[in-house]
Amino acid sequence: MTSQTVLTEISQGVLTLTINRPERRNAIDTATYLTLAEQVSSVDIKAIRAIVLTGANNYFTAGNDLKDFQAPRPEGDSAGLTFLRSLVNCDLPIVAAIEGSAIGIGVTMLQHCDFVYAADNANFKIPFVPLGLCPEGASSLLLAQIVGPRRATDWLLRGQPFTATEAYDAGFLTGLCRPGETLSHARKIAAELSALPPEALQLSKRMLKHSQRSKIHETFDYELGLFSQRLKSEEAQAAFAGFFKAKA
């Protein structure tokens, strides 16, 4: 599966996936999710040793394309959840490079990356409650584990922006970079990883994730039912209408 909305590049055993919808601030639609999921799930582990995930035009992603939230949803996993499951199941190290902003699922997907580097002027936001929604991406489980329950509660319930420095200090980021240098640094780390013995590298990641993987998938299922209900709620539909009116 290929798409102009996901750019792929392979170098030194590293697959770089670039979300490429700059006209929508790299908001991720159904086709883009499925392309990302296919790239991650079908990666040739004999040729590829690490994955870098980033966004085009110095912007990571504005999150889920809200237009898709207003379309009828199929039963079972959404396209976004299919992508998240591919990240969870991947035994290759995944390195994220964040420039500009990461919003919504643009933040929660980072919980499933192994290394996360951001420009020191980047910003983050998880606006589920302000949009009449609820946590997704296993953030109801993982975020408190990563940044502590007080910080997780603040970020998830208030839905206010937070800075790269705040994210780094909370332990959400692996490191900070100068603006414009995040992707090159992420690729450097990925190249270092790709030079390591591949079986030992993949086994070690599998061991680190072993105790959590089943719990994460269980949380995905739990969140899915509630998130689907919230999408149909009057609160969410009113929030979406307000968003599109403001953009008109």
Overview of the molecule:
Keywords: Isomerase, Peroxisome. Belongs to the enoyl-CoA hydratase/isomerase family. Its main location: other. It holds the Pfam family ECH_1. It is found in: Peroxisome. With 248 residues, the protein is α/β, with parallel strands linked by helices. It has one domain: 2-enoyl-CoA Hydratase, Chain A, domain 1 (Alpha-Beta Complex). It is 47% helix and 16% strand. It has 10 helices and 9 strands. The chain has helices spanning 30-41, 66-69, 79-89, 105-108, 139-147, 149-158, 164-169, 182-194, 198-231, 234-247, and strands at residues 6-11, 14-19, 50-55, 94-98, 101-103, 115-119, 123-125, 162-163, 175-177. The strands form 2 sheets. The protein has a 6-stranded mixed beta sheet, with helices on both faces. Strands 5-7-8 form a 3-stranded mixed beta sheet. Strand 2 (14-19), helix 1 (30-41) and strand 3 form a beta-alpha-beta unit. It is globular. The model has no long low-confidence stretch (mean pLDDT 95).
Can you tag this structure with a few keywords?
single chain; 248 residues; alpha/beta; 2-enoyl-CoA Hydratase, Chain A, domain 1; six-stranded mixed beta sheet; three-stranded mixed beta sheet; 10 helices; 9 strands
